[in-house]
Amino acid sequence: MPRSPGSSFPALSPGYCSVRRASPSSLQVPGLPGVYFREETVRLRDRDLNILTASAVDVLASAARGPIPYWPVAWPAGLGLARHLAALDLGGRRVLEVGCGVGIAGLGAALAGAETLVTDTQPPALRLACMNARRSGLSIRAAAADWREWPFRRGADFDLVIGSDVTYEPAAFDALLQVLDDSLRQGGAVLLSDPGRLMTTAFQQRAIAAGWTWSTETLPREGTQSVFLHRLTCRPKTTKECAISCGNNGPETPEGERNQTECQ
Ligand SMILES: C[S@@+](CC[C@H](N)C(=O)[O-])C[C@H]1O[C@@H](n2cnc3c(N)ncnc32)[C@H](O)[C@@H]1O
């Protein structure tokens, strides 16, 4: 995988990629007895990726005793974003995915040549994203990271931050916007996809009030689902803002970066 000079991610430690071999039929969705992952073929660019996902969310909903876990499903917005990214040339670019779930959008970025770090608050999601990368012969890195307690040094300097179907929880909007701001390099862009959720409008308003510019295009439908692609760019940061936002005073090796795992 191409890497831009001097931009490799920090040293990794073992952790999230421990599920190395498992037959899909025996791989139960964690916490949901009787629900198993299935194989799904996703065509990205000229490649058929064979990924593991759980079936539709209503299956998860009927099996869940507590809150429904959203991460095991490859959501239509994720598939749409993956196809969009896979068609780009991202060679040498650093891409961060937030709320990766099964990792489909991150795989699209990796297929386009990006050095890709996928993150989610759910460790099983990272294990699955790693498995899906390995099954596809793609290389990504994975790390557990919650927007509300973001473990990375500010100014991580990503060229592109991506996220699909992550703008549905208003209580997390401010934290997510802060993560985007802290992670993006000057001149970088954020690409978020969603199926047209009402809550995305509230997120958009919050983002614009915080100084982001926002534009939306419509991607090809995924099955019966509409998919919208939102592009966010931040106003140029002043030197003072950059000193804060780029974290020049931050710790050199924060815990979150030590906990990244390489998945090949
Ligand atoms: C609807 S799913 C979308 C998954 C994937 N992006 C896709 O499109 O298939 C939302 C994802 O966001 C993650 N998420 C929700 N709140 C989060 C938070 N505070 N920090 C990090 N990830 C979060 C969930 O665990 C889940 O994987």
How is this structure best described in words?
This protein has 264 residues and is of the alpha/beta class. It has a single domain, classed as Vaccinia Virus protein VP39 (Rossmann fold, 3-Layer(aba) Sandwich), CATH 3.40.50. 28% of the residues lie in helices and 27% in strands. Helix 2 runs parallel beside helix 3. The protein is globular and about 50 Å long. 43% of the residues are buried. S-adenosylmethionine (SAM) binds next to helix 2 and helix 3.
Furnish the topology, listing elements before pairings.
Elements lengths: L37 E7 L2 E7 L3 H7 L12 H11 L7 E4 L6 H8 L3 E6 L2 H13 L4 E5 L13 E7 L8 H11 E11 L3 H12 L2 E11 L2 E10 L4 H7 L9 H4 L2 E3 L1
Parallel strand pairs: 3-4, 3-6, 4-5, 6-7
Antiparallel strand pairs: 1-2, 5-10, 7-9, 8-9
The chain binds S-adenosylmethionine.
Binned, the helix content reads 25-40%
Largest sheet: 8 strands, mixed
Q: What is the total tally of β strands?
A: 10
Estimate nothing, just give the exact number of structural domains. Answer: 1
CATH class reads: Alpha Beta
Low-confidence stretches: 1-22, 239-254
Q: List the ligand species.
A: S-adenosylmethionine
Radius of gyration: 17 Å
- From the spread of the alpha carbons, the general shape counts as globular
Oligomer: single chain
Beta-strand share of residues: 25-35%
The overall pLDDT average reads 83
Count of helical stretches = 8
Q: Based on helices, strands and strand pairing, what is the structural class?
A: alpha/beta
CATH topology call: Rossmann fold
Distance between the termini: 10 Å
Strand order of the biggest β-sheet: 8-9-7-6-3-4-5-10
CATH architecture: 3-Layer(aba) Sandwich
CATH 4th-level superfamily: Vaccinia Virus protein VP39
